[in-house]
Design goal:
By secondary structure, the chain is α/β, with parallel strands linked by helices. It has a single domain, classed as Rossmann fold (3-Layer(aba) Sandwich), CATH 3.40.50. It has four helices and eight strands, in the order βαβαββαβαβββ. The protein is globular. Pfam families: Pribosyltran.
Length: 157
């Protein structure tokens, strides 16, 4: 991993949310539900919900990263999971902070595949090695990203 870093500030994040939402609007996509991938996609999902007037928000928790450039072998969906009955026939916008390897997004797309009418992905950042090509992307980078919510060490171990 290179030492190069992409620094995202809170003001830049606010801009990214509005610009991603505008991409969705310009594309004519009208999601019924925003499905945020916890933890990184929570702020984006909330912001997109407001910007797109979507009140139906849900969360799916997927663990993959364990540290800086350290991952589990495979992403794991953690309970509780959204009830697939609640997703049935909906147009879903999946929100996450970054499509790095894309494997987290892939597992969420697979979870939705047999239940939703359509699912599209929105991310703040996309990396070239991602196996998933999000429909809506704010920036593309190869660098490690310092997000404003995770750039400092946790207060508790």
């Amino acid at each position: 991993m290179s030492d190069e870093r992409e620094i995202l500030t809170w003001p830049m994040f606010g801009t990214s949310v509005r610009e991603i939402a505008q991409q969705v609007v310009d594309d004519g996509y009208e999601p019924d539900l925003v499905l945020s991938i916890a933890r990184g996609g929570l702020a984006l999902g909330m912001g997109l919900g407001y910007a797109l007037s979507v009140k139906n928000l849900s969360v799916i928790n997927v663990e993959f990263y364990t540290g800086v450039d350290q991952r589990l072998e495979m992403p794991i969906v953690l309970p509780p999971t959204p009830d697939v009955v609640d997703l049935s026939g909906l147009k879903v916008l999946i929100a996450d902070d970054v499509a790095d390897t894309g494997r987290t997004l892939e597992i969420v797309q697979d979870f939705c595949a047999d239940h939703v009418a359509e699912a599209r992905v929105a991310v703040v950042y996309e990396k070239p090695q991602s196996v998933v090509r999000p429909a809506y992307v704010w920036r593309r980078t190869e660098a490690w990203i310092d997000f404003p919510w995770s750039s400092e060490a946790p207060l508790r171990g």
